[in-house]
Amino acid sequence: MPDANQGRSNTAPWWGLLFALASVGCNAAFFINAPLQGMVPWLSLLFAAVALVFLVMGLRLAIVHPKVYRRRVLSIIVAVIALLPAGLTVFAFVGTRKLPNADAAPQVGQKVPDFTLADTSGKPVSLDQLLAASTTQAQAPKAVLLIFYRGYW
Amino acid sequence: MEKHLAEFEAAGVRPVAISVDPPDVSLNLANKEGYTFPVLSDPDAAVIRRYHILHPAGAPDEHDIARPAEFLVDSSKIVRWANFTEDIRVRARADEMLAAARKLH
């Protein structure tokens, strides 16, 4: 059993933990409405990948070279803990991109289907009404911006 | 969205939100967020289907919902700008939509 205070220090698990936390932290960009959000999922995936490289390296050093590197158990614990946020990022990346394509949806230059749907008071509202002048907007709008969202179910 | 409402109105654009949420859920959302633009309900996803943006079993409870999509539709009901995200975390930003709105004549 090597002396815990002797030997080289294994910093790889700590770097792995840092990158794993950064990969999760990237998601803050969505909440502060930062620009270039399209890059964020990729950036967070990159950080997770770097984290995984460090974690594998750290585990390898701790397990394969137990006599060379000190604080072996701590290295393994940190690496295993850091796997959680890194894995979460990869899992989220796959999950949030599992969307059906919109190839059949109305594209620029195409006409959209008419509709009539209930508003928050249950009153039916048609696309024609939305495109017409209303009590709140004296002038008919030039356009409506239809924002389809997932909802809260 | 609500923060930019005056800018959309100045550009002659009326935002309208649509989801499968029933009116009472939409009302809660509108009250909570202070939305003054229309929030419409498509509980059986009939319109969402007609727009070909259904995400079958997309909700955690396997409910059919809409995939996120934004359409800028002019008075002739023609799409002038559209956005279909590939990641539910990444939505069209208000400034992008305003830029599209300001390009309308």
Map the helices and strands.
The complex is a heterodimer of chains A (153) and B (105).
Chain A: H1 12-25, H2 28-31, H3 40-64, H4 72-96, E1 116-118, E2 124-126, H5 127-130, E3 143-148
Antiparallel strand pairs in A: 1-2
Helix pairs in contact in A: 1-3, 1-4, 3-4
Chain B: H1 5-10, E1 13-19, H2 23-33, E2 39-41, H3 46-50, E3 54-55, E4 65-66, E5 69-74, E6 79-83, H4 94-102
Parallel strand pairs in B: 1-2
Antiparallel strand pairs in B: 3-4, 5-6
DSSP helical segment count of chain A:
5
- Distance between the ends of chain B: 22 Å
Q: Shape of chain A from CA axes?
A: rod-shaped
Q: What value does the Rg of chain A take, in angstroms?
A: 26 Å
Mean pLDDT of chain B, to the nearest integer, reads 93
* Low-confidence runs of chain A: none
Structural class of chain B: alpha+beta
Q: How would the global form of chain B be characterised?
A: globular
Strand order of the largest sheet of chain A: 1-2
Strand content of chain B: 15-25%
Number of strands of chain B: 6
Number of strands of chain A: 3
Largest sheet: number of strands, sense, barrel closure of chain A: 2 strands, antiparallel
Distance between the termini of chain A: 57 Å
Which percent bin holds the helix content of chain B?
25-40%
Give the biggest beta sheet of chain B. Answer: 2 strands, parallel
Q: H/E element string of chain B?
A: HEHEHEEEEH
Which percent bin holds the helix content of chain A?
A: 40-55%
Average the pLDDT over all residues of chain A and give the rounded result.
90
Structural class of chain A: mainly alpha
Descriptive labels:
heterodimer, A: 153 residues, rod-shaped, B: 105 residues, two-stranded parallel sheet, two-stranded antiparallel sheet, 24% strand, globular
